[in-house]
Amino acid sequence: MSSFPPGVFAVQCPNPKCRKFMLVEEHDRGKTVACLICQTPIKVGSAPATSKPQTR
Ligand SMILES: [Zn+2]
Hints:
The chain has 56 residues and is mainly β. The protein is built from no helices and 4 strands.
């Protein structure tokens, strides 16, 4: 399902009325990007939003 090119991952819009997934690139980590749909600022974290937290 998540067959993005290397260096690209998805972040989800925090707007509860939008929740759109957007693709961002590795160099966008730590930055804030605007949602293309609702223009809500999305903080790009250090981990992909689609990956589960690894606790080990
Ligand atoms: Zn949005």
